[in-house]
Structures are given as structure tokens and as C-alpha cells.
Amino acid sequence: MKRGDDHRDRERPSRRTMTTVSRHDFGDDLENPVFSISINENKKEDYGLFVWPCSLILAEYVWQQRLRFSGSRVLELGAGTSLPGLVAAKLGLDVTLTDDSSKIEVLDNMKKVCDLNKVKCKVLGLTWGVWDAAVFSLKPNFILGADVLYDASAFDDLFATVTFLLQNSPGSVFITTYHNRSGHHFIEFLMEKWGLKCVKLLDGFSFMPTHKVVALGGNIQLAEIITTIGC
Ligand SMILES: C[S@@+](CC[C@H](N)C(=O)[O-])C[C@H]1O[C@@H](n2cnc3c(N)ncnc32)[C@H](O)[C@@H]1O
Fold first, then answer.
1. Does 100 score more than 90 pLDDT?
2. Which terminus of the chain, N or C, has less C-beta within 10 A?
3. Would the CB of 148 count as within 6 Å of ligand 1?
4. What's phi and psi for 211, nearest 5 deg?
5. 51, 49, 45: which is closest to 3 by C-alpha?
6. With bands split at pLDDT 50, 70 and 90, how would you rate the model's confidence at 183?
7. pLDDT band at residue 47, thresholds of 50, 70 and 90?
8. CA 152 to chain centre
9. Whose CA is nearest to atom 14 of ligand 1?
């Protein structure tokens, strides 16, 4: 999954040269986007230093649903290069970007992309299934997670965190995009186990502008999930 996060390796030239900056436009007019977001990526490094297709789809969804997000607090889990959260920040929302607390390089890059795009977001180490003090004060209206359902051994930790956040912030919604590799059964099983309910399920490509779909493949779904406990 990753090439190791030994900080001493960071200065090695072979790793430095792999860094690229990708640009992502939002708006209906191709020639004249409403805003663009630049992302530092390093394809040879960590999963969290690459803009995954699920992230492109979730970012576009946030943009298209911007009126609904208006004035809300947004928390992104496993944010990595953070494109959906950065779109939310460009829309003026209160955004907290999080990733595994042990991924120092990923967390550092999140701060760099905020600076690069001139947005202010909180950046926080949040490892799924770990209850650091900061987790208890988070009260997001929207929890975003792009491509966070890829390692079955982490599903329960992720859903434990998502369930806690949904219960701790009544009315909140978890919006996730994921590769549907083996049907919807696994997510249904997890939702039942954790007292969650899927209130919307979309083909991730159904709302993507044609020019953005060209470079994407696979079967990506977007699910909106709420807690049934206390509702
Ligand atoms: C496939 S990447 C997706 C990154 C980004 N959301 C995207 O779609 O471009 C998965 C992300 O989850 C993070 N992650 C993996 N396990 C985690 C854990 N136990 N706690 C928190 N984050 C984790 C990784 O560091 C990585 O940034």
C-alpha cells in the first residue's frame, strides 16, 4: 500500500522528482471555470499523495450540490490530497481535513495544498477507530470519504468512527465514493451492523460532466449514509 513513511527518505532526489501538480476545474464553462484547484501529487509515494478517481467524483458532487452544503461544517476522512474538502473550502465552508495520524507526509501535504489554493482548513490526524480527544469535539454536518472503503481489514474501524461522528452530530450525513468491486453486499452488511442506513446511492459517473469522465474507469458508486440510532 505505501512505500514507508520514514521522514529521512524525503530528501532523496529520486522521490522528489516524482512530484507533479495537477489542476482541477469546477464550473459549467470549460473555458472559464468558477475556480480551479491545484494539487501536489507524488505517484511513487503513499496512497494519500495521489488524487484517486473517487476523489474527483466526490469533489464534483460537492460542487454540484453546493447550495445544499451552504453554511455547513465539513469533515473529510482519509482525505489524502483532499480535493473534495478543498472544493468545500473554496465554497467558503468550515472544513476539517483528516488522515491517518501516522502519515506525517500526507498531513504535511494537506497543509501545503491549502496554502497553494489559498484556503484555510483545519488539518488533523484522525486514525479510524482511535479516540483521540479532538474526535469528541467534531460536529460536522457532512462527513466526506473518497476511496476510504478499499481495505477490508479497516472497514470496522472506519465505520466505528463514522458511526460515532454521525451520532455525535445529529442530522449529519456521511457521503462516500467507492469502487464497487463485489456488489453492494459488503456495505449493506456494515451498515446493518453499525445501525446505519443508505439514503442515496448513485452511479458515480451519472452526474459527471463528459469531459471529466474520459480519464476515469471502473464502477464507482456514491452513497449517502445516516445513522438510524436516535432518529
Ligand atoms: C485510497 S486513498 C484515498 C485518498 C483520497 N481520499 C482520494 O480519494 O484521493 C485512502 C486514504 O485513506 C487513508 N487511510 C488509510 N487507512 C486509514 C486509517 N486507518 N485512518 C485514517 N486514514 C486512513 C490513507 O492515508 C489515504 O489517504
1. yes
2. N
3. yes
4. -65, -20
5. 45
6. low
7. confident
8. 18
9. 78
Handedness of CA 34, 88, 195, 161 (dihedral sign): positive
Phi, psi (degrees; rounded to nearest 5) at 110? -60, -40
Closest by CA to 61, choosing from 165, 150, 164, 146, is: 146
- On whether the CB atoms of residues 99 and 110 are closer than 8 A, the answer is yes
Q: Is the CB of 150 under 6 A from ligand 1?
A: yes
Identify the H or E element spanning 60.
helix 53-64
Exposed e or buried b per residue across 124-146, where buried means at least 16 C-beta atoms within 10 angstroms of its C-beta: bbbbbeeeeeebeebebbbbbbb
Q: How far is the CA of 32 from the centre of ligand 1 (A)?
A: 32
Q: Is 127 in the pocket of ligand 1 (CB under 6 A)?
A: yes
- pLDDT of 213: 83
Whole-angstrom CA distances from 226 to 78, 147, 164, 172, 191 are 19, 18, 11, 7, 9
Q: What is the pLDDT of residue 230?
A: 66
Tens digits of per-residue pLDDT, 50-71?
Answer: 999 999 999 999 999 999 999 9
Ligand 1 pocket test: pick from 24, 43, 47 the residue with the most ligand atoms within 8 Å of its Cβ. Answer: 47
Name residue 122's amino acid.
K
**Among 4-8, 149-153, 188-192, which stretch is predicted with the lowest mean pLDDT?**
4-8
Residue 3 has pLDDT above 70, yes or no: no
pLDDT at 18: 76
